[in-house]
Every structure is written in structure tokens, then in C-alpha cells.
């Protein structure tokens, strides 16, 4: 983080000489919590213009201004990979979002399955959680978190060119491997709910032309473990770890 | 889990016709929480004799007896892989132990580094957490969780034949790959603390003949994410996912 103590996401344009107005929350965090003052450095990113070093130009109780100095990293979007997951208990749902950001998913899609129990999913909170994870892990990109969608409906209009990797428990113990395909293609990973998929859902998934079933080892993984393991497997094979 | 609703670790011998006496805690869980009664089925494992189907022979308020019927799975120990990690906040430490069990580590070693803050690590609680994870993930083995040890001292007597895989942040962005070595050899994975290693520690690690530095992708991973990702990478290359 060089000499800047804070890395902050802002929903504003960044560029040489650009002034960035702070929200009241951001001002509170920078000036009251982190105790920054005029001239102190901050790293900024907005998901579009890379990462910029900025300095505090003016600070106030409920606002303030930063001035962009120089770009410190270009925009590095993750590969075109979506993560679909069935939300679980709140703490683990937050973890999955955090891990999807760290592991480099481009889009996070919570899905409702037969055995999903998630009436009260707060998309805005999950989005804030994704931003926080991006601030922490040095990403210059923040994946979109969509609203909860019915898995059924999503599959009914699934893009023809987007492969769907699925940790099929029926393959437990078989070799974990992905087919030999070119990189740079659109993909998604589907992580099931704690209770597993219903039989009708499994039948539906197996019949999907875009499906790529994969084994995730001989033990049963919790959803959040499975998400990180599947993302690792994919990134090693087709993504930005290779 | 077939027709058994409960999978339970017991620290007692298992075998055909073997009677298993329950502790007060186990009796409370089976009879009060899960409401099992005489003749109901339970799956048992002890980390040594595989998994056994057993039935409730006698139930009481503070005890009871199960009778082993038949083995349902042989003992499947994980590969000879240790996970060393610097404990962090309690919730994430618990997660790392849980994930190490699911991902198949044979031994879990919390280590004290320069930047580790973990005076109050409860080895007994972490061991109980490992047992719970094994009950959940279908493992027939429970990794040992050692007491907190100084990393320095551990490295001073590090076994000559045990390679140590280390997610070196200095390699961020390089290709994540492990050398072409035969399987079945002793290994360990080292996951650093949130604040990273001190420079003196990095120098020490890089000079260790058994060290195998590896990149874990272009983003900075939290310790618990890094643990799952590193375990996935290793299991795919040398372990029981391959």
C-alpha cells in the first residue's frame, strides 16, 4: 500500500488532477477513524479507472476533498467468471462474497434453489461487503452482486456460450479436473446449498448443454469451502492464476 | 448418511458387535437434541477404525450404549500433509481448522510469528472444532491440532524430508504452480498472519532447503482464503483430489 494507510473505493471518476468529493461516511472513516489530515495519502479505485494515489486536499466533519496525484495500478478486471451460490447462514454468505472477490469472480449471483432458505437477503449489504473485500485484497475491480434469483429461471435463459462448472457430489472421489479448453471464454461456477440440490434440480443441471460437472475431492465441503476450492481450480486452469 | 440422522465421533474402539458407551454430552445430543431412541441408527467413527453403522441399545439421561452393526466405510486417512498457520481473529481461526479438515490435512499446527497476536489460543477448543468438522464432512479421520508453537523453533528442527509450501507474496501475479515431484511424500503448507511475515522471517524461510515458494494469484488473500486455495492447489497436484 506504499505510504498510503488507506485504500478506498469511490463511486466517482479518477484521473490526473481529478478532485474527489467525499461522502459523510468516507469523511468520518478517513478523518475520525483513521485520523488523516491535509496532505496525507490515500489509494483510490472505482472499478473502472485503476488505482490512484490521492492526497487529502480538504477535510471537514461531514465531507472533504481528495486530489488524485498519479495512477498506481491499471484496471485489472478478473476473468469473465460468474459465481452462482445458494445463500446460507448470514456469516457464511458474507464469507462467500468476500472470497469471490479475493479469488477473482467478475459477477456474484445469489440463487434460490429448492433447499435454499434466504428470504431476507440484503443485496445492498452484500454489495457493500464486496467493496470492503476489494479494498482489502488490492483488487481494482468490484464484482456486481445481483439480487436473489430463482435458479430455475436463470437456467431457462442461460447464455448458450457460457459454460457452467458444477461441483457434482455424485462425482465425489473422482479426479478433480477440467476439460482442455481455450482460455478467455465465458464461464460460471455453481455452488449448491448446504442441503444439496433436489433430485429434479440435479436432473435439470445434468441435462444443460453448458454444464461441466467436476469432482471437488473425496470429502463433503461446506458451501464456502467449496466456493474457494472451485474458484482455485478454475483460476488455475483458465484464469489469472495460470 | 444413509438412514442414520447423526454422524458421531467417539474416542473408543469400533468393530463388529462392539458396544460403545456414551458420555453425558453425547447422550444429551443423541437423546435430548436429536431425539433418538432404542433401535435408531447412528454413524460412528473414531479416526482409526473407519465408519460404522451402530444402533441405540440403551438410552439414559446421562449416558447410554450403542451397538456397532457393520462397517460403512474403511479408514481413509488424508495424505501426509501438515497445515501451519498463524492464528488470527477467533472466527477465522475456527474457519481455518474447519477448512483444513474438509480439505484433508493430516495435522494442524498453529504457529506464533512476529506479527501473530494469539496469546489465548485454546488447543482443546480447536480440537473439538476439528472433530465437529470431521463429523460434518464425512471424514473418517480427525487431524491432530497441536499447541501453539514458535515458528522459529519449529523451523530450527524442521524434518529434512518434509517440503514446506509457502504462499510467498513476493510472487503475487506469477503462475501458480508446484514442481513435478512424486506423490506420497511428506509435505506441509505454511499460511502467514494477516500482517504478513517480518523481513527476518521471510529471509529465514527463503533459505530453508525444504521451502517451495508458490504464487497464490494476483490478489492478496486473507489467511482463511489462502488456506483453502493452497490446500486445493496441493491436493490437485499431489493429494487425494488427483
Automatic annotation (TrEMBL), chains A, B:
Residues 22-62 form the Ribosomal RNA small subunit methyltransferase E PUA-like domain. GO terms for cellular component: cytoplasm. Keywords: Cytoplasm, Methyltransferase, rRNA processing, S-adenosyl-L-methionine, Transferase. CDD domains: RsmE-like. SUPFAM superfamilies: alpha/beta knot (SSF75217), PUA domain-like (SSF88697). It is found in: Cytoplasm. It catalyses: uridine(1498) in 16S rRNA + S-adenosyl-L-methionine = N(3)-methyluridine(1498) in 16S rRNA + S-adenosyl-L-homocysteine + H(+). Residues 79-235 form the Ribosomal RNA small subunit methyltransferase E methyltransferase domain. Pfam families: Methyltrans_RNA, PUA_4. GO terms for molecular function: rRNA (uridine-N3-)-methyltransferase activity. GO terms for biological process: rRNA base methylation. Its EC number is 2.1.1.193. Specifically methylates the N3 position of the uracil ring of uridine 1498 (m3U1498) in 16S rRNA. Acts on the fully assembled 30S ribosomal subunit. NCBIfam families: PRK11713.3-5, RsmE family RNA methyltransferase. Belongs to the RNA methyltransferase RsmE family. This is Ribosomal RNA small subunit methyltransferase E. It comes from Neotabrizicola shimadae. The lineage of its organism: Bacteria, Pseudomonadati, Pseudomonadota, Alphaproteobacteria, Rhodobacterales.
